[in-house]
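Input for the complex:
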Amino acid sequence: MINILVPVISVILGLLVGAIVMVVSGYDPVKGYIALWNGIFGDSYAIGETIRQITPYILAGLAVAFAFRTGLFNIGVEGQLIVGWFAAVYVGAAFDLPKVIHLPLAILAGAAAGALWAFLPGLLKAKMKIHEVIVTIMMNYVALYVVNALIKTWSGGGDKTERIKETASLRSDFLASITDYSRLHYGIILALLMVVLMWFLLEKTTTGFELKAVGFNENASEYAGMKIGKNIILAMVISGAFAGLAGAMEGLGTFGNMYTRGGFTGIGFDGIAVALLGANTPLGVIFGAVLFGSLKYGALNMPNAAQIPEEIVQIVIALVIFFVACGYAIRLLLSKISKKKEAK
Amino acid sequence: MKPLEYVIEMLNIRKEFGNFVANDNITLQLRKGEIHALLGENGAGKSTLMNVLFGLYQPEGGEIRVRGKKVAITDPNVANELGIGMVHQHFMLVENFTVTENIILGNEPTKGGSLNISAAAKKVAELSKQYGLNVDPYAKIEDISVGMQQRVEILKTLYRGAEILIFDEPTASLTPQEIMELITIMRKLIKEGKSIILITHKLQEIMDVSDRVTVIRKGKGIGTVITSESSPEELASLMVGRQVIFKTEKGPAHPTDEVLAVKDLVVTDSRNVEKVKGLNLSVRRGEIVGIAGIDGNGQSELIEAITGLRKTKSGSVSINGKDITNKRPRQVTESGVGHIPQDRHKHGLVLDFPIGYNIALQTYYQKPLSKGGIIDYKAIDRFAEQIIEQYDVRTQGAHEPARALSGGNQQKAIIGREVERDPDLLIAALPTRGLDVGAIEFIHRRLIEQRDSGKAVLLISFELDEVMNVSDRIAVIYDGAIIDTVKPLETDEQELGLLMAGHSRKEAAAMQAEEGDDKHVQ
Amino acid sequence: ACGSGNDDASKDNGKKEGGGEKTSEFSVAMVTDVGGIDDKSFNQAAWKGIKEFGEANDMEKGDGGYDYLQSAGEEDYIPNLNALARRDFSLVFGVGFMMQDAMDEIASQQKDTEFAIIDAVVDQPNTASILFKEQEGSYLAGVAAALMTESKKVGFVGGMENEVIHRFESGFVAGVKAVDPEIDVDVQYAGAFDKAETGKTMANRMYSSGVDIIFHAAGGTGNGVFSEAKERKSADPDANVWVIGVDSDQYDEGAVGDTNVTLTSMLKRVDVAVEDIAKRAKEGDFPGGETHVYGLDEDGVDLADSRGAIPEEVMTKIEDYKEKIKSGEIEVPEYPEGKEPKK
Amino acid sequence: MSFLEILYFMAPVSIAYAAPLIFTALGGVFSERSGVVNIALEGLMVMGAFIGILFNLFFYDTFGSWTPWVALIAAMIVSAVFSLLHAVASITFRADQVVSGVAINMLGLAVALFLTKMIFDKGQTDFIKKAIPNFNIPVLQDIPVIGPMLFKGVYGSSILAIVAAFVAWYVIFKTPFGLRLRSVGEHPMAADTMGIHVNRIRYIAVVISGALAGIGGAIYSQTMTRDFGHATINGQGFMALAAMIFGKWHPIGAMGAAIFFGFAQALAVVGPSIPIIKEIPTGYLHALPYILTILALAGFIGKATGPKASGKPYIKGSR
Ligand SMILES: Nc1ncnc2c1ncn2[C@@H]1O[C@H](COP(=O)(O)OP(=O)(O)OP(=O)(O)O)[C@@H](O)[C@H]1O
Ligand SMILES: Nc1ncnc2c1ncn2[C@@H]1O[C@H](COP(=O)(O)OP(=O)(O)OP(=O)(O)O)[C@@H](O)[C@H]1O
Ligand SMILES: [Mg+2]
Ligand SMILES: [Mg+2]
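Predicted:
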């Protein structure tokens, strides 16, 4: 009960403080929040786009959460996502194959690229004990510039890749038609499958058991016969694969190609918040992604329908995360309230 | 007798953790200049009571008087000001600090705003000399022995001028030599007019040094007795609530085939210093071989090399005739080796895992706990419940985090895990460290059972008592080699002590004779 | 070129009559890219064009008048374009080549709305594509730099390498070489539009190696170029360091006490193009499916008026070149040498 | 460029690039040494960059040529106050320190941009009139080789940063406060038993980190961009975090790492005039600084472990 109450109260508190900010700066919070609501749930188009936005957040959140659960801090989801995006688009555009092969292949390419990008930090951590945070931060930049250069090379000096073939696309006329031409694509199903996969991997398999054990206590795990290095690398690689899939969602679903980028997508960094909002559990990640994705997407409608500046929405989102992080204080408050009630 | 002057009175102290009552109206009165022992089973609430006195916990009820005055000890600062110092059960030392830094922390001498380490170190050296503590002020904690760390803890309290000292299980991880030293130190402190509360599970120590004993059981005060009017047996039964057998009953050994064979083994430590230097050892089915030795003579490296946790430099290790030198830990365990590790928190347990997972930590990948890489958690639960039941692990259930169990119960779970795998060789390293007499008795019985069912047991212990009581053969390790092997019945603690100090049996005999002569002369 | 917005007002006469009915009421909006309407670059210029058009036609900000939506990321382009189309704006601008695919998709769905995209070509019947001949303006910047350099070394700092920025580079180099082929042009790209520290380091390197005029086409990275120049200027008022600004008149950015390091700026008049297209759409002359290229001749690009440091005789020379380009006598290359598209 | 010219160019550029990172990384060192993970450095830097510019713009008339320096102090104070949010969340409210940090990062940028819009009615501030100046150090600059490398075109802020690194080293390793700070990050319970107020020390450390990151941000904006906008600080905070880890949580190490980053960045800029690097296509050249860092880590830095209690809130009586 309290586990549900805490995030709900955090969200309410975040919105409340956001409302105060709006009032103070001369905007109408009621109008603002109606716009936010409509931006998320207003019509089938909004719902479709909200779900589309949630999709990569789930995967990025899984990537971060998986690493955390195995004792690693993968701050490189952003870079892994970028290479995953590129690889998926490359396979999606460069080959002519029937859909049953092409789409899975392109998705796999994304996952593989992300995994590869995470392999190096994993290897350095396993073999040389080099802190994964710093390597993954560096790998983010390397991904950004290398992918930009690859796009340039591939497109003969252009700024974007070819479009993926229809056979590699996650989009569908059906989804578009029921959501009034939103870009909702089948990626959400894949993302949810990955949630199940992560849960299964961590909670059901011997591999997951080992990964968690190594994350908690390397010495005891080694004593129990587990291979420490292998598990660290594997954890990074799986985490990177999730991140790569998030990129594949963008490449094969939302965009259908890739542009050279001036900076990061932000999804990878937001994935940290998503994962931690969800307490690093697979189910929690869904919650985090829904919260984050909805706010992010719905926020677009606040300047649109209520002329409230984007920045205020960002403030609200940050506050919501802040309050969720402060869950302990909310718990304390709740228990005090319930004690008082008992006393009466 | 002087008028009864209490420096500390803890009256009807009550401490609750949630719904659990850890201290249920316990009263403890400490006289000036006495050593007052506090005795109780693992988890009885001793540390809790002392943490209340030291200001780390706030009691729910009762009152504390210091030198007759009622006080509220709201945090350790207050305790320090009242002259109360505590040596904690789990050392409160910052590992990568030097001895001096640890000692002055919170009370630092300065010169022009910066730390005056040299002055502090001088003072530490002086104190150390005054009490015969022999501590290097500039050594890093992570580099010094447990005994030395213990003395640093004591210095911490002395440095602050504590008049009332609490020792929470100071001897649990000390070697016999170090314990002797500690006792000397305690006596010195008392002579200086200080008062001591001593927690220990070793009844002999209580008999040796304490003036009075307060016994608690399951959070309740049982009473206070005058040591000289009591006996170990009485204390034990007061504490446990039943009769305790001290000398473990066991029949003679019937050793058969060799299980463990270590030949000319050379192992280096993490700093690449040779610690095991051409060691030979053999353990057969149906016998318990005890390794006696002073800490640091290569015991840890030897076990780590056998179990695959450390690479050997040369020599060989084989189990049942099969060479396992430099095999990975998994291959070693699968060749029939069970291992109760020396450090249960570092190697023995994943503290954040449920105790059930920990019980499955060696077998989770095998049938019936898993099939085809898929773990059957129901099977793990069943298995864990069975071990918990069978080995009397006191816990709320298999899902409780290992962290929340007391050390004794953690240890029982580990023993259950290792024994239940039915290994041909069971290596038990310091298996009873920090445990109460009841638990020790239980563990010793299990080791003997293993032997009697035809397994080989290798016991490493710093406690001569334990080695003498449990082993069938005692291999004395000194400077990385087994210098002699003796039978418990054919030796005594004195001879063993001399052997452990590196003397040959002949020398030992001579020295013993001499000593005996001396005694006569005196 | 500056006052072009004003004369539209006089021509606007049909507005009041159709006022009551929504369909006949003309409204216009734009979607920015991540820069926002005040990025001192083309978003700002586009918004300026829309605002001026709106004000000139007595329109109000908001539905049925003129408005904009800002994108926080590229995933927002489609929802934003879509939102504006759904709010029944008659004409929706997309600013920036990054919006190409998004525009293509939305234009094919929202067939009743007219769209226009800046810096890219979208092949839809209801979409007008707007390109600029940045190379022509940059050519003049190159000429100015070549005529003014004392060290015979000039520099170019680009942001990300793409076709648009390549046009800047190409024109600039061509302009310099047209005056004096012996002059060195030091070309470097920062790889991003928002790395001021890299821009500054590049400028530092160039000035250190004797370059005295740097033309930047690098957005926020160009801030660093200005910082370096200004720093040198304030350390040594006699330092011969200049910057040529880009997109809008960056004279103010060059101020160092009483002096200024901005030699001139290459203007990219997105506002002119936006107003032009809006006007045509309002008059029912929307060039859907067409691509309009705005060069010197169309007032789409130019050098800023702020050329304080450029002496009169140099000005005349620049004007000469300008006329030659306008007349077609000089054709400015679109791609830098060796950077022609391979396909 | 000749080899010497390259050196003359790279040395000062590396240090100038490093200065904001040094300050911010030092902030990270204080915070993490006390056991509070500070991924919020980015947001704290943003705040500093914004306040630095804002103050500079509004008080130029009052403080004249001293403005940039006073602006550093203003940025320091505001970021320190802002960092209290992170402190309250992660120390008192036992929040996950990484989440709290992420929230602060988002909040810092959003608040700074919102205020920019409110005050300037546009997406970025005006340009400041007076930036942090650089100057040649008399006499020293004439020393052959070293002079032009280290003593020409020196920013006051760079000197300050290097001095700050040594001061931080002194404070952390030579003063009672430093000893307590480190003890709290290694073994808070031990510190508690010695009568040290664990949470108080951690609050102080986090606020110091806010103050230092604020200075770092204000140095960046007052030397590199001279205005504030959405992209002014983008990733510097994370680079500072990386510098802190690279430097093994040691002030001097962090400084060295920051200078190394500066060196790598400068190398990518002068790359086209260096024989081997010249061959790397520009696109890939942009990745060079980051690849160099990874190589350096793998090559000669190796293992780094942070303070033991880092990331864990201290809860009295738990173990
Ligand atoms: N921090 C805590 N939270 C909850 N319960 C606790 C805590 N500390 C102790 N307890 C409870 O109090 C009881 C007494 O613990 P305590 O540490 O005082 O035992 P002890 O007598 O010192 O045991 P040992 O001999 O093993 O050191 C435990 O059984 C446990 O259930
Ligand atoms: N954080 C906690 N939560 C719940 N119970 C706790 C906690 N900390 C300690 N305990 C309880 O305290 C009791 C005794 O703990 P204590 O550390 O004194 O045991 P111990 O036998 O001395 O262990 P060790 O071998 O580690 O010294 C245990 O029974 C355990 O249940
Ligand atoms: Mg205890
Ligand atoms: Mg104990």
